Amino acid sequence: MSLPTEDVSKKVDATSLWRLWMGRFAPMLALAVVVLGFTLSDLRWGQGHFFEIRNARVILVETAPVAVAALGMTLIIMTGGIDLSAGTASILCATVLAITLNAERPVVVAVFAAVGTGALCGVFNGLIIGILRLPPFIVTLGSMTIFLGIARHLASISNTSTVFVERTRIPDWLLKFTSTEPPQWVGWLPNIPSGVWFAIAISVVMAVTLSLTVFGRHVLAVGSNEATARLCGVNVFTTKLLVYALAGVLFGIAGLYSFSLLKMANPTEGIGKELKFIAAVVIGGGSLSGGRGSVLGTLSGAAIMCVISSGCAQLGVVNATQDIMIGLIIIGAVSIDQLRNRKQD
Question: I want to staple 69 with a disulfide (CB 3.0 to 4.6 A). Which of 5, 254, 289, 325 is the partner?
Answer without folding.
Answer: 254
